[in-house]
C-alpha cells in the first residue's frame, strides 16, 4: 500500500492501527461493503415495483423496512464513511502533517461505525430514514426502532468526532509555511463540511433522545396524544439533515476539484472562488431546512424566507460548476475512468440542481411534495453527484492504495452503464412524480403510465446493478492481480502535475 | 518518496484475506440477521400500552367467576361498504347484539370474518374512533387483519361500570356500523364473602416437573397422568389450608389468583413463598385462609411463566 508507505503487516495490526492511512483503508473497505449491501436493497425495491401488486416482498411492512435500511445505509454507512476514507488518506498529506491531529480519536470514530451499522442492519426498522413521528413513537415495533435510534446516535457521535479531527488537523496542524489559502481545495471541502457537521448534528442527537423518551412514554414531545407536535420533529430533523446534504456533496465536489485539474493537465481556474463557494455553501446550508415542510401549513412569510434561503445555494453551486468547466476549457483532457466519473457527476449535479431550483419554488412544491419527483430529485443528487464523485475518486485512489492499476476498460464500462442507468431511473422518477405517484408505496394502481415508468426505472436500476457488479469484480481482481502501477505517474499524465504523495511532507 | 524506496503492492493473498474477513462477517451477520428477522419487531413501544388505556384501568377486576361467551361474526353487504355489522345487517334480527355483563365477569369473544373484507376486533371505552383498545381484547389488527374465513378469540374483563364498545378496529369500519355495546353493571349477587362457616379443608399439592424441567409443569401429576391439576371445591367462608411441596428440581411458589395469567396478585393471603423467595427443591410450606366471594379461581405457581406451562388448576368457591 503506497499511501501508507509501510511494510505489509498482519491484518490485526492494520485493524488496531491509529495511523491515518490504515484508518482510511478501513473506512474505505467498510463503506464499499455497505455500498453493495444498500444497493442490493435498492434493486429489491425496484424489482418489487416492476409490476403493481406484491411481487417478491411479503408485505408493506417488510417493504418499509427495506427502504428504511436502504436509505440509512447508503447515507450513513456508505457516503459519510467513504468521504471520511478520502479525508483520512489525503487531508494530513495535503496539510503536510504526520497524521490526523488526534489519531486515537480517529480510530475511535471509525470503530463506532460497525456497531452502529450492526444495530441498523440487525433491527431493520420500518419507519423510514426520517423516523416519521408519530408512527415511530406510538406504533413502530421495537426493539428494531430503538436499535435504529441508538445506531444513529452512535453514527452521529462518530461524525462529530471525525469532524473535530479534520478541523483541528487542517487549522492547527498544517505546516507553518502553509497559509490557509494554500491548503488544497479537497482539504478545504473537508474543513467546510466538518464545520457543518459540528453545528448541525447536535440538533438531531437531541431529536433522537426525544424520540426515544417519547417511545418510552416518559415524554410527549412529538406525540399528539400527549400534547406534542410531530412538526417539531420535522424542524429538528431537517435542521440537521438539510445541511447534511451539503456535508455529503461538499467532499464529493472537493474530490472533483482534485481529479479535474489533474486530468485536464491544467491548474484550477480559480482556487479562491472554490474556497469562497465552499464557505458560502456551508453558511447557506443552514438557511433552507424548512423547504422540506412547505406542505405543513407554514405562513407565507416563512415559506418565502426558506425559498430564498434555498435559492441562495445556487450561486455557490454555480461557481463550482463554472470552475470545473473553465478548468477543463482548453485543457489537454485525458478521459480516464476517474475523469469520466467526475464529468458525469458535474452533468448530473447540474441536472439535479436545476430540479432542485424548480422544487424550491413553493407553488410547484405543493404539486411535487411526497411524490416520486422528490425521490428522483434527491437520488439524482446522492447517486448522480455524490456517489459519482466518490466512485471516481475510489478509482483515482486505487493505484496509490494498492500499488496496482484497476482495469481501465471495466472502469469505463462501469461508468457508461451507471450513467445510463442513473438517467433512466431518476429522470423517469421525476416525471413519475409529476404524474402523481406518491413515494414510499409498496403497491400502486395499474395506471398504464405509472406501470411503464416504473418499469423503465427498474430496468435502469438493474443496469446500475450490473455496472456495480463489474465494479466489484474490477476492485477484487485488480487489487490481487492488477498491473503494477507506476507510482510516480499511474495515469500517464506526464508527471509534471502534483500528486499527493509528492507533496513536500517530511513525514511521507 | 525517494527512488530507492520499495513500492509495496497488494498481493492476491492479502486480497484473499480481506475477502475472507468481509465474507465471514457477512455470513455470520447474515445468519443472525435472517434468523432473528421477526424478533426485532416483536415488541410494541412502551408508550403504546400506556396510550391504549392499560394504565387508566389499572387494577384488574376481582373475577366474579362468571364467564359470558359471545360469538360474533363480521358481516357486510355484498359491495363491502354500504353496511357493515356484527352477526346480522342493519334491520335484521341479531344485529350488533348488546352484551350485558357485570364488573369482573369474563367476556369471551369468538369472532369470525364470514363475509370477506378485512376486519379486526377489539373492545374500547371510547365512544368514537378505533383507539383505546383494551389489551387482551383484540383479535388481529388493522395492519394484519382477519381475512375471509379467519377467526379468533379474545377476552375482556371490565373493571369499572359503564358502557363499552366492541368494534371492528379497521379504521372507518366502526363508523359504517361495526360496533356494538357492552353494558357493564355493578357486580351483583353474592360477590361478598359469606360469613365464616366453621368448615375447614386441608389440601396438599405437589409441584411436579417433566424430566427436562420445562416442557411440562403441573401440580400432583404430569399432563395425562392420574391426579393432574385436580379441582378443589369449597364453600365461601370455609377455612382452607394448603400445603405445597416442591417435588421437582426448580423453584416454585404457590398462590390463588383470579386469573392464571395474573401471577402477581394472590388472593386472601393464600400465597406460599414467592417468586422472589421461592420454595427450593424438596421444601414445602403451608398457608391457611378463608375462601372469599364465590367464583372460579385458580391456584397457580406464581413464578412467572410457570402457570402458562401448566402449573394451574381450578379453585372453585361456591
Describe, in plain words, how this protein is organized in 3D.
- The complex is a heterodimer of chains A (508) and B (318).
- With 508 residues, chain A is an all-alpha fold.
- Chain A has one domain: Cytochrome C Oxidase, Chain A (Up-down Bundle).
- In chain A, 70% of the residues lie in helices and 0% in strands.
- Chain A is built from 17 helices and no strands.
- Chain A has helices at 11-15, 20-48, 60-94, 103-111, 113-123, 135-138, 144-172, 185-216, 230-264, 271-284, 300-311, 313-328, 337-360, 362-368, 372-402, 408-434, 448-481.
- The longest helix of chain A has 35 residues, at 60-94.
- The model of chain A is unreliable at 501-508 (pLDDT under 50).
- Chain B has 318 residues and is mainly β.
- Chain B folds into two domains: 67-185, Immunoglobulin-like (Sandwich), CATH 2.60.40; 200-317, Sandwich (Immunoglobulin-like).
- Chain B has two helices and 16 strands.
- In chain B, the strands form four sheets. A four-stranded mixed β-sheet of chain B has the order 2-1-4-6, with no helix packed on it. Chain B has a four-stranded mixed β-sheet with strand order 3-8-7-5, with no helix packed on it.
- In chain B, β9 and β10 form a beta hairpin.
- The radius of gyration of chain B is 28 Å and the shape is flat.
- The model of chain B is unreliable at 54-58 (pLDDT under 50).
- Classes of the chains: A mainly alpha (508), B mainly beta (318).
- The interface between A and B is large, with 46 and 35 residues.
Summarize the structure.
The complex is a heterodimer of chains A (about 500) and B (about 325). Chain A has about 500 residues and is mainly α. Chain A is built from 17 helices and no strands.
Amino acid at each position: 500500500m503506497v499511501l501508507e508507505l509501510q511494510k505489509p503487516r498482519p491484518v490485526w495490526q492494520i485493524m488496531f492501527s491509529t495511523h491515518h492511512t490504515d484508518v482510511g483503508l478501513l473506512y474505505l473497505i467498510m463503506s464499499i461493503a455497505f455500498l453493495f449491501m444498500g444497493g442490493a436493497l435498492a434493486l429489491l425495491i425496484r424489482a418489487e415495483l416492476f409490476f403493481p401488486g406484491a411481487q417478491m416482498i411479503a408485505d408493506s411492512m417488510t417493504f418499509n423496512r427495506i427502504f428504511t435500511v436502504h436509505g440509512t445505509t447508503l447515507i450513513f454507512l456508505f457516503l459519510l464513511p467513504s468521504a471520511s476514507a478520502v479525508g483520512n488518506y489525503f487531508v494530513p498529506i495535503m496539510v503536510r502533517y504526520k497524521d490526523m491531529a488526534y489519531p486515537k480519536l480517529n480510530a475511535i470514530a471509525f470503530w463506532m461505525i460497525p456497531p452502529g451499522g450492526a444495530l441498523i442492519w440487525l433491527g431493520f426498522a420500518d419507519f423510514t430514514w426520517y423516523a416519521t413521528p408519530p408512527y415511530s413513537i406510538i406504533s413502530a415495533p421495537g426493539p428494531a426502532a430503538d436499535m435504529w435510534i441508538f445506531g444513529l446516535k452512535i453514527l452521529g457521535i462518530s461524525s462529530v468526532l471525525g469532524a473535530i479531527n479534520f478541523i483541528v488537523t487542517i487549522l492547527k496542524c498544517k505546516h507553518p509555511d502553509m497559509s490557509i489559502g494554500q491548503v488544497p481545495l479537497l482539504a478545504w471541502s473537508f474543513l467546510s463540511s466538518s464545520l457543518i457537521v459540528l453545528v448541525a448534528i447536535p440538533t438531531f442527537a437531541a431529536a433522537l433522545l426525544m424520540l426515544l423518551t417519547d417511545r418510552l412514554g416518559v415524554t410527549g414531545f412529538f406525540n399528539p396524544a400527549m400534547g406534542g407536535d410531530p412538526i417539531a420533529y420535522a424542524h429538528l430533523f431537517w435542521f440537521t439533515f438539510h445541511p447534511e446534504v451539503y456535508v455529503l456533496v461538499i467532499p464529493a465536489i472537493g474530490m472533483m476539484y482534485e481529479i479535474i485539474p489533474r486530468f485536464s493537465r491544467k491548474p484550477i481556474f480559480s482556487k479562491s472562488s472554490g474556497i469562497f463557494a465552499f464557505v458560502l455553501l456551508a453558511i447557506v446550508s443552514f438557511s433552507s431546512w424548512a423547504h422540506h415542510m412547505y406542505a405543513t401549513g407554514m405562513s407565507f412569510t416563512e415559506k418565502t424566507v426558506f425559498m430564498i434561503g434555498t435559492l441562495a445555494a445556487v450561486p455557490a453551486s454555480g461557481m463550482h460548476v463554472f470552475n470545473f468547466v473553465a478548468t477543463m476549457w482548453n485543457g489537454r483532457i485525458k478521459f480516464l475512468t476517474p475523469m469520466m466519473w467526475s464529468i458525469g457527476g458535474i452533468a448530473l449535479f447540474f441536472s439535479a440542481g436545476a430540479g432542485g431550483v424548480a422544487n424550491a419554488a413553493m407553488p410547484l412544491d405543493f404539486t411535487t411534495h411526497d411524490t416520486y419527483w422528490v425521490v428522483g430529485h434527491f437520488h439524482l443528487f446522492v447517486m448522480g453527484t455524490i456517489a459519482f464523485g466518490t466512485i471516481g475518486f475510489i478509482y483515482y485512489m486505487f493505484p496509490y492504495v494498492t500499488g496496482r492499476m484497476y482495469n481501465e476498460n471495466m472502469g469505463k464500462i462501469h461508468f457508461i452503464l451507471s450513467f445510463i442507468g442513473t438517467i433512466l431511473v431518476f429522470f423517469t422518477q421525476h416525471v413519475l412524480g409529476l404524474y402523481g405517484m406518491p413515494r414510499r408505496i409498496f403497491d400502486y394502481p395499474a395506471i398504464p403510465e405509472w406501470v411503464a415508468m416504473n418499469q423503465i426505472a427498474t430496468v435502469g436500476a438493474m443496469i446500475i446493478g450490473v455496472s456495480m457488479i463489474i465494479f466489484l469484480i474490477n476492485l477484487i481482481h485488480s487489487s490481487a492481480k492488477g498491473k503494477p502501477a507506476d507510482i510516480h505517474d499511474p495515469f500517464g499524465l506526464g508527471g509534471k502535475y502534483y500528486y499527493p504523495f509528492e507533496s513536500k511532507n517530511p513525514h511521507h | 518518496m525517494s527512488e530507492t524506496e520499495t513500492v509495496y503492492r497488494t498481493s492476491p493473498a492479502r486480497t484473499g484475506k480481506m475477502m475472507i474477513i468481509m465474507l465471514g462477517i457477512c455470513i455470520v451477520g447474515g445468519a443472525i440477521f435472517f434468523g432473528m428477522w421477526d424478533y426485532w419487531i416483536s415488541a410494541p413501544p412502551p408508550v403504546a400500552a400506556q396510550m391504549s388505556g392499560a394504565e387508566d384501568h389499572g387494577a384488574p377486576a376481582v373475577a366474579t367467576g362468571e364467564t359470558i361467551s359471545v360469538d360474533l361474526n363480521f358481516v357486510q353487504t355484498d359491495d363491502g361498504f354500504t353496511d357493515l355489522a356484527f352477526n346480522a345487517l342493519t334491520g335484521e334480527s341479531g344485529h350488533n347484539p348488546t352484551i350485558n355483563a357485570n364488573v369482573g365477569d369474563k367476556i369471551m369473544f369468538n369472532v369470525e370474518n364470514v363475509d370477506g373484507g378485512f376486519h379486526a376486533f377489539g373492545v374500547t371505552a371510547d365512544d368514537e374512533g378505533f383507539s383505546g383498545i383494551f389489551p387482551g381484547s383484540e383479535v388481529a389488527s388493522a395492519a394484519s387483519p382477519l381475512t375471509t374465513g379467519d377467526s379468533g378469540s379474545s377476552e375482556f374483563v371490565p373493571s369499572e361500570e359503564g358502557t363499552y364498545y366492541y368494534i371492528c378496529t379497521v379504521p372507518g369500519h366502526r363508523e359504517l356500523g361495526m360496533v356494538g355495546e357492552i353494558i357493564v353493571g355493578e357486580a351483583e349477587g353474592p360477590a361478598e364473602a359469606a360469613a365464616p362457616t366453621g368448615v375447614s379443608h386441608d389440601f396438599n399439592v405437589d409441584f411436579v416437573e417433566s424430566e427436562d424441567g420445562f416442557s411440562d409443569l403441573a401440580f400432583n401429576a404430569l399432563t395425562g397422568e392420574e391426579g393432574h391439576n385436580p379441582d378443589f371445591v369449597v364453600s365461601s367462608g370455609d377455612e382452607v389450608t394448603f400445603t405445597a411441596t416442591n417435588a421437582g428440581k426448580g423453584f416454585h411458589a404457590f398462590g390463588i389468583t383470579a386469573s392464571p395469567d395474573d401471577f402477581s396478585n394472590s388472593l386472601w393471603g393464600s400465597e406460599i413463598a414467592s417468586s422472589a423467595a421461592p420454595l427450593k427443591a424438596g421444601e414445602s410450606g403451608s398457608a391457611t385462609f378463608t375462601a372469599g366471594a364465590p367464583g372460579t379461581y385458580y391456584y397457580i405457581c406464581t413464578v412467572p411463566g410457570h402457570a402458562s406451562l401448566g402449573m394451574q388448576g381450578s379453585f372453585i368457591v361456591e
